[in-house]
Design a protein that fits this description.
The complex is a heterodimer of chains A (298) and B (568). Chain A is built from 15 helices and five strands. With 298 residues, chain A is mainly alpha-helical. The chains are: A mainly alpha (298), B alpha+beta (568). The interface between A and B is large, with 38 and 40 residues. Chain A: This is Immediate early response gene 5-like protein.
Chain lengths: 298, 568
């Protein structure tokens, strides 16, 4: 497998750097360079593999894993588009677990919808132009994240789980039509509207988490202060994961553009997850499928 | 032998009798015996002198070999290069496979083939083939602040080496011409001076996609000269242009209806008629666009290559390769298309393409995955199915986040003989034999010390730099660029390599370039530079080697350095 380099960057920072590059390339003179973005996507894929591997290694050791899994199942039963207090409670539970406990707990909540990472990355880049004038360091966007962090954990992941559960492996194709900016997800022949858009709508409709926002913000702010600590950085990264499936939902266009960056494909990648399979449940795997994306040409 | 006999003749007492006997016979056959004796003496002398001569030759030969074996080879190539250029006869005179390093006798053998060359060459050697490089010229601004438009983006010699073309990011093409060798200094090759400058491409805007099209010249390729004018193809991201560069040194004078400055004369003032005649004028070099090949590429053009038939050329972008006729600019054939039906399944792009130098039906293209495909246009109209696939299996121990990036090929070049091709990826140069697809025949590490720095190189985007590579005239040396204004030469025959620097500090005329060394760790010796001190903003991406002589053109960011072989 990939030998993690001794250099300072870990998988997480590589992911954020890569996303930064992709984002910047869109404003570069001369148009988007297909070759460079393809190479950056390879780095992203490699970093993701390492990152998820590390994450799942931690998850595996977790004790509350099963507990969260049961929560998972309960949520799954619900209509994913129907957000109500029950959801909020679940979210709160998960979030409390997140914030109160080890970072690995976040991971547990995260792995539930592994597409969170996708959304996180979407969030990362979408939040960038909105929230942060400075885009240089990957640490900058974090305060922005925290602002929007306190939403339901995963209307998105639920959406994807919902659709994912309909098939053992998630063969999803997300395509952005650059002309009409319509994002469509084709999965096993079924055409869905993009989950993320739904999630956004869900997010918009949800009101209850408002008060929990402060709680979340409070506990997350403390993390922001530990910037220099490497371990804390990882912790924060994981926290971001669990919190940031909710990009700034007022910017659907940004989201949909970013989704176009992560089209699906890379079916070969799915086979590489074989070793991870042993650790994770099928659910997790299915939602992992959402992560096997290639760059859609612009 | 003779002496012995003589001695015996003189001292042996029995010899007297012989002598007497001889004298008895002398009268009978004096002439014959005397003749034989004389002949014997002559033969002895001849044999002796040949032995001496042969011994001296061997002695001189061996002395030369131990002193300077490779200079012979180098010297040899200069005078026989006219033969090398003959496409059919190349293989006869040029050893197409590099001499084995283990066969020490290679150098003397090469020398003996061409006995006209002086056997003894003076001078100490270092680096490739013991050729010493010295500074000749530098072109470009001296300021440290580089204007974006002045960044050199391509360098190319023409087929005779007399002209050197450079393209920059501002869309300009500058052509230098070599001065004819002066009789005063027959050993010093002419200097390159500006011959023509013109704006080849302008920035454009694609309104349909809301994209700006850069005017940066990606590639320049010369056409073989057919008449007095020179032709070259220059391309930016989307459009290829055929330029004609012609000289004008005469102009017609003496028009009846026009004044010299072009104003029309009044009819009434014309009293006599005269025939206009051509009068000499100051040399003027004109560049005019003869053809514009546009709107054929959706993605960014990265290569153009003129076919050996001199009628067609190919242009390659990220996903497609088109075949053009030089005369027809509104149509092109698509010969390679690797765009997948579903763009999400895209895994590789085309990074470079080139026609075979001798076979007009063969071309290769390299991909971002580190593979090279050789295609034969006779096989099918659409050459998606390759004829040969050159790929080296990846070393699983070297796997990292950036494995895909550093294996992406940035340049592919055929050797002049057409038997080999060379590819450049981020860290190495590989020479492939067209007959062997499984692995390259030679691999040269350009700057392996960067392998541990890939992360930071990724952050500052240097890992995406596309280095080019080039062959020398007889395919014995390959050259490529690196960082800190270093460039590297690898001698294929003697397995030597040298790192040289193109900098203003070494810019005294005819100052010899000193080999540089990068210390990879541990103790740093004097004159070595450590990896952390390398300036990654100073990179040499484009280099070119004169097709016949040992003259190289090396482009730093905004300067063009010309180096020549040191001659005594």
């Amino acid at each position: 497998m990939i030998n993690t380099m001794e250099c300072a960057a870990d998988a997480q920072s590589l992911i954020s750097i890569s996303l930064m590059k992709i984002h910047n390339s869109r404003t570069q003179r001369g148009g988007i360079k297909l070759h460079k973005n393809l190479l950056v996507s390879y780095v992203l894929r490699n970093a993701r593999q390492v990152y998820i591997k590390e994450k799942y290694a931690e998850i595996y050791r977790m004790q509350q894993y099963e507990e969260v899994m049961t929560v998972c199942n309960e949520i799954q039963e619900l209509n994913p588009l129907d957000l109500d207090a029950e959801d909020a409670e679940d979210e709160e539970q998960a979030r409390a677990a997140c914030c109160g406990e080890e970072a690995s707990l976040c991971g547990a909540a995260c792995h539930r919808g592994a597409a969170q990472l996708a959304v996180h990355t979407r969030a990362a880049v979408s939040a960038l132009p909105d929230c942060c004038p400075l885009e240089e360091s990957s640490k900058e966007p974090e305060p922005c994240y925290y602002r929007s962090c306190c939403m339901e954990t995963s209307p998105v992941s639920q959406c994807e789980q919902f659709s994912a559960n309909s098939s053992a492996y998630c063969n999803k194709t997300t395509v952005l039509d650059l002309d009409t900016h319509v994002v469509t997800t084709v999965e096993n022949g079924y055409l869905h509207q993009d989950c993320c858009c739904d999630a956004l709508q869900c997010g918009q409709s949800a009101q209850s988490p408002a008060k929990k926002r402060k709680v979340e913000f409070g506990c997350c702010v403390s993390d922001v202060e530990e910037i220099s600590d490497f371990a804390a950085a990882r912790k924060r990264a994981k926290r971001e994961d669990c919190s940031f499936f909710h990009p700034d939902y007022t910017d659907t266009s940004h989201i949909s553009n970013l989704i176009s960056i992560f089209g699906s494909g890379f079916s070969g990648l799915l086979s590489r997850q074989a070793d991870v399979e042993q650790i994770c449940s099928k659910q997790v795997l299915a939602s992992l499928g959402a992560w096997t994306r290639a760059i859609v040409a612009f | 032998m003779g002496r012995g006999e003589n001695m015996g003749y003189l001292t042996q007492p029995g010899g007297r009798q012989k002598k007497q006997q001889f004298h008895l016979d002398v009268d009978v056959e004096p002439l014959f015996i005397r003749f034989l004796r004389t002949f014997k003496e002559i033969l002895k002398f001849v044999l002796f002198s040949y032995t001496v001569l042969f011994g001296a030759l061997l002695l001189a030969r061996w002395t030369t070999y131990f002193m300077n074996p490779s200079v012979l080879g180098q010297q040899v190539q200069r005078n026989t290069l006219t033969v090398l250029r003959d496409p059919g006869g190349t293989s006869r005179f040029l050893r197409s496979d590099p001499p084995e390093p283990s066969r020490v006798s290679t150098a003397p053998v090469r020398g003996l083939i061409r006995p006209s060359e002086p056997l003894i060459m003076a001078g100490t050697g270092d680096g490739s083939s013991d050729v010493q490089w010295c500074f000749s010229q530098v072109k470009g601004a001296i300021d440290d602040e580089v204007a974006e438009a002045d960044v050199i983006s391509t360098v190319e010699f023409n087929h005779s080496g007399e002209l050197l073309a450079t393209g920059d990011k501002g869309g300009r093409v500058v052509i230098f011409q070599q001065e004819p060798e002066s009789k005063n200094q027959p050993q010093c090759r002419g200097e390159y001076n500006v011959y023509s400058t013109f704006q080849s491409h302008e920035p454009e805007f694609d309104y349909l996609k809301s994209l700006e099209i850069e005017e940066k010249i990606n590639k320049i390729r010369w056409l073989p000269q057919k008449n007095a004018a020179q032709f070259l193809l220059s391309t930016n991201d989307k459009t290829i242009k055929l330029w004609k560069i012609s000289e004008r040194d005469k102009r017609p004078e003496g028009y009846n209806l026009k004044e010299e400055d072009g104003r029309y004369r009044d009819f009434n003032t014309v009293t006599t008629l005269r025939v206009p005649v051509f009068m000499p004028m100051d040399l003027m070099v004109e560049a005019s666009p003869r053809r514009v090949f546009a709107n054929a590429h959706t993605y960014h053009i990265n290569s153009i290559s003129v076919n050996s038939d001199c009628e067609t050329y190919l242009s390659a972008d990220d996903l497609r390769i088109n075949l053009w006729n030089l005369e027809i600019n509104d149509r092109s054939f698509n010969i390679v298309d690797i765009k997948p039906a579903n763009m999400e399944e895209l895994t590789e792009v085309i990074t470079a393409a080139e026609f075979h130098p001798n076979q007009c039906n063969t071309f290769v293209y390299s991909s971002s995955k580190g593979t090279i495909r050789l295609c034969d246009m006779r096989a099918a109209a659409l050459c998606d199915q390759h004829t040969k696939l050159f790929e080296e299996p990846e070393d699983p121990n070297n796997r990292s986040f950036f494995s895909e990036i550093i294996s992406s090929i940035s340049d592919v070049k055929f050797s002049h003989s057409g038997r080999y091709m060379m590819t450049r990826d981020y860290l190495s140069v590989k020479v492939w034999d067209l007959n062997m697809e499984t692995r390259p025949v030679e691999t040269y590490q350009v700057h392996d010390y960067l392998r541990s720095k890939l992360c930071s190189l990724y952050e500052n985007d240097c890992i995406f730099d596309k280095f080019e590579c080039c062959w020398n005239g007889n395919d014995s040396v390959v050259m490529t660029g690196s960082y800190n204004n270093f460039f590297r030469m690898f001698d294929r025959g003697y397995r030597q390599d040298v790192t040289l620097e193109a900098s203003r500090e070494n810019s005294k005329p005819r100052s010899v370039l000193k080999p540089r060394k990068v210390s990879t760790g541990g103790k740093r010796k004097k004159d070595e530079i450590s990896v952390d001190c390398l300036d990654f903003n100073k990179k040499i991406l484009h280099t070119a080697w004169h097709p016949l002589d040992n003259i190289i053109a090396v482009a730093t960011t905004n300067n063009l350095y010309i180096f020549q072989e040191k001659l005594n």
